[in-house]
Write a structure and sequence with these properties.
Layout lengths: L1 H16 L2 H24 L9 E8 L2 E8 L27 E5 L3 E3 L2 E3 L2 E8 L5 E6 L15 E7 L2 E18 L2 E19 L2
Antiparallel strand pairs: 1-2, 2-3, 3-6, 4-5, 4-10, 6-7, 7-8, 9-10
Protein name: DUF2911 domain-containing protein
Length: 199
């Protein structure tokens, strides 16, 4: 008799555990949580790019000069001598190497930069910067930088800015008919690269 009672209790308990209404309720709750999760993910605002791609360009004489770069911000950091070490090669921007394209020959520091597209690399220093125009313009950072592929190199003296330049900024500025200057400013430093349009 005791065995029959135990068996009946077991059957009743198993029946309760398989109640279809309970299963349906649990399934609905799970579906609702999944939907809410997707809804939250879809409506989240996109994250802001910290170093957006931008460009600088100008017509100087009959030359079209275009610089393409990724512009990082200072964000309360020490940049030169900190994030960007002194006396080390830097790709003059964030992410991919900064590049310049000119459809005419340029004369920079008395040397010819033939028309074409070049990566810009620099070696910052406290008193002097080295600027290099390199044939390998399409590269990530300075990973594949090779000094032997430089077409033109020059030394420039950095200028100290009175106010912080928060975002890295390049400009191509016309100074007269066939002459101009390429400037790069970031943090409290600015460099200038004068040039003339060749014949």
């Amino acid at each position: 008799m005791n065995k029959i009672i135990i068996l009946l209790i077991s059957v009743v308990m198993m029946g309760c555990g398989n109640d279809p209404k309970q299963k349906e309720s649990a399934g609905s709750q799970e579906l609702q949580e999944t939907h809410e999760h997707h809804e939250t993910a879809e409506t989240s605002p996109p994250s802001k790019t910290l170093s957006p791609y931008t460009s600088a360009m100008a017509m100087i004489g009959d030359a079209h000069i275009h610089i393409d770069y990724s512009s990082p911000s200072v964000r309360e950091r020490i940049i030169f001598g900190g994030l960007v070490g002194y006396n080390t090669v830097w790709q003059a921007g964030a992410h991919k190497a900064t590049w310049i394209e000119t459809d005419k020959n340029l004369i920079i520091d008395g040397k010819a930069l033939p028309q074409g597209k070049y990566g810009i690399f620099v070696i910052p220093g406290k008193e002097q910067w080295e600027v290099m125009f390199n044939t390998r313009w399409d590269q990530h950072g300075k990973d594949d930088y090779n000094e032997t592929e430089n077409v033109l190199s020059l030394s420039v003296k950095p200028v100290e800015l009175q106010e912080i330049q928060e975002s890295l900024k390049y400009e191509v500025i016309k100074t007269n008919g066939n002459s101009g200057v390429i400037t790069m400013a970031w943090e409290k430093v600015k460099i200038e690269i004068p040039f003339q349009v060749g014949k």
